[in-house]
Amino acid sequence: MSVLPYVIAAWLFLIGCYGLATSRNLIHAVGCLAVCQSSTYVLLLAIGYRDGGTAPVFSDITPGSRPVVDPVVQALTLTDIVIGATVTALLLSLVIQVAKRHRTVAPDELSELRG
Questions:
Q1: Overall average pLDDT of the 16-20 stretch
Q2: What is the CA radius of gyration of the chain?
Q3: To 10 degrees, what angle do helices 26-48 and 71-102 make?
Q4: What are the phi and psi torsion angles at 44 (to 5°)?
Q5: Distance in angstroms (rounded) separating the CA atoms of residues 4 and 7
Q6: Residue 45 near residue 12, CB atoms below 8 Å
Q7: Distances (CA, A) of 6 to 2, 9, 12, 63, 113
Q8: How much of the chain exceeds pLDDT 90, in percent?
Q9: Three-class SS string for the chain?
């Protein structure tokens, strides 16, 4: 197993966080948050990877004869993708509502939302 997937996951997370911190547009901020979350996909798949692993279907082979990948990690990754898409859609719909009400998507110009 290589360290490369972990480095890529950390790089994606840092790029997304940097974009989120420097964002001057709410749509850009939502996109950067989606990039941050995509780093979790890479991390989960890197954790569940095994060299020479096959699908955990034991109908044609005897258990323990070959290494298999962990199906729980794959299920968690799929669940993470679905939740990420849902959160992104919800945040974009909130940005649309903010744009309708305040006529801007720049967070600096939304003075009514300050405490």
A1: 95
A2: 20
A3: 180
A4: -65, -40
A5: 5
A6: no
A7: 8, 5, 10, 30, 38
A8: 59
A9: CCCHHHHHHHHHHHHHHHHHHCCCCHHHHHHHHHHHHHHHHHHHHHHHCCCCCECCCCCCCCCCCCCECCHHHHHHHHHHHHHHHHHHHHHHHHHHHHHHHHCCCCHHHCHHHCC
- Put simply, whether the predicted model's pTM sits higher than 0.70 gets the answer yes
Reference 68, options 88, 43, 51; nearest CA is: 51
- What is the spatial distance between Cα 62 and Cα 81, in angstroms, rounded to a whole number? 32
By CB atoms closer than 10 A (0-12, 13-18, 19+), residue 26 is: buried
What pLDDT digit, counting tens, does each position of 62-109 carry?
777 778 888 888 899 999 999 999 999 999 999 999 999 888 888 888
Residue 110 amino acid letter? L
At 55 the pLDDT is: 77
